[in-house]
Amino acid sequence: MTTRLRPVAEDDVPFLHRLMNDPDSTGDFQWYGFQGPHRLRARWAENGMLSDEGGILIIADGDDAVGFVSWNRQIANRASFYWSMGLIVAPEHRGRGYGTEAQKLIARYLFDHSLANRIEASTEITNVAEQRALEKAGFTREGVLRGGGFRAGQWHDGVLYSMIRSDLD
Fold first, then answer.
1. Could you tell me which residue ranges the N-acetyltransferase domain spans (predicted)?
2. Is 27 exposed, middle or buried (0-12, 13-18, 19+ CB in 10 A)?
3. What are 97-116's pLDDT values in tens digits?
4. Are 32 and 25 in contact (CB under 8 A)?
């Protein structure tokens, strides 16, 4: 396994659409309902899914797309910001360590290419596999987000993780 991150190509848009729109592909913790079929293509046409405010990169193993990571800028205060990030690995590639490796790679990428000192990631409290992946990637569990996310008709508790720049060393 040689995990790498790469920009989204136009040919990747249907793959992203599947991972965000197909309940069998999103997984139990990422299904939020159907989205417009042209939204991702329009975003790709606008900026290739990369901007100063955030982006999406493909998680690849060789030439094969296995998932994606995304991040967006969050304002901390008037003087600083941090990144909030997440990912989805395609169901046929789960359980092989791609999520852990991708989270390490995106953290390094964001710290190398911005002044941010903090990256946050959260997941539902029952998503034990993602919690393990975040911890293996070097993220620190900070606490429980009570009623932090609405999915499948109800509010769910979440778990907040973070990494700061000095955690990489």
1. 3-166
2. middle
3. 999 999 999 999 999 999 99
4. no
